[in-house]
Amino acid sequence: MKHSVVSLTINGAERQMLAAPGTTLLDVLRESQGLTGTRRGCEQGACGTCTVLVDGRTAMSCMLPVETIEGAHVETIEGLTPPQGLHPIQEAFLEGFATQCGFCTSGMIMVAAALLAKNPNPARDDVVRAISGNICRCTGYEAIIDAILDAAVRVKSASRAEAA
Ligand code: FES
Ligand code: FES
């Protein structure tokens, strides 16, 4: 089988990799890049636990052959996390007790990041819609929704503080 060379920017760093046909972005992230914060769940596009951002939009990395996203910018939970401390969305999840087993958390946070980038003032329904493709096996949905609404406030105040 003919491998191809694929170039991606992953969390701001340019990477080149040799990929067999059909190699998924999830495989690349977890197996060859060591970025295990992106979780492997159903591998069928049904649970959302493998969600990352590709060119700023959410994508289920288990469904995405890397050769189809040559040149894309990929952001994972590791890229969202600042060098010190936590991102405001992560703080909101932590302080709002929105993680139980934590398996769905990375995907939920990446969905929240994409939502807040597009809509800094989401209504509860917007949040519910945004996470509708993400399954939490612990069924802590209320806490997750509240955390994302709280994260919206935190992200706005963090960007106000940065601008001051
Ligand atoms: S692991 Fe990708 S959607 Fe479930
Ligand atoms: S916190 Fe356990 S799957 Fe969501």
Helix content: 25-40%
Low-confidence stretches: none
Major sheet: arrangement of strands: 2-1-5-3-4
Radius of gyration: 16 Å
Q: Enumerate the distinct ligands.
A: FE2/S2 (inorganic) cluster
Provide mean pLDDT, rounded.
96
- Overall geometry comes to globular
* Tally of separate helices: 6
Number of strands: 5
How would you spell out the order of helices and strands? EEHEEEHHHHH
- Measured by DSSP, the beta-strand proportion falls in 15-25%
Give a quick precis of the structure.
With 164 residues, the protein is α+β, with helices and mostly antiparallel strands. The chain has helices at residues 25-32, 77-80, 88-95, 105-118, 124-130, 141-163; strands spanning 4-10, 13-19, 51-54, 57-60, 73-75. The termini are far apart.
Map the helices and strands:
Blueprint: E1 4-10, E2 13-19, H1 25-32, E3 51-54, E4 57-60, E5 73-75, H2 77-80, H3 88-95, H4 105-118, H5 124-130, H6 141-163
Parallel strand pairs: 1-5
Antiparallel strand pairs: 1-2, 3-4, 3-5
Helix pairs in contact: 3-6, 4-6
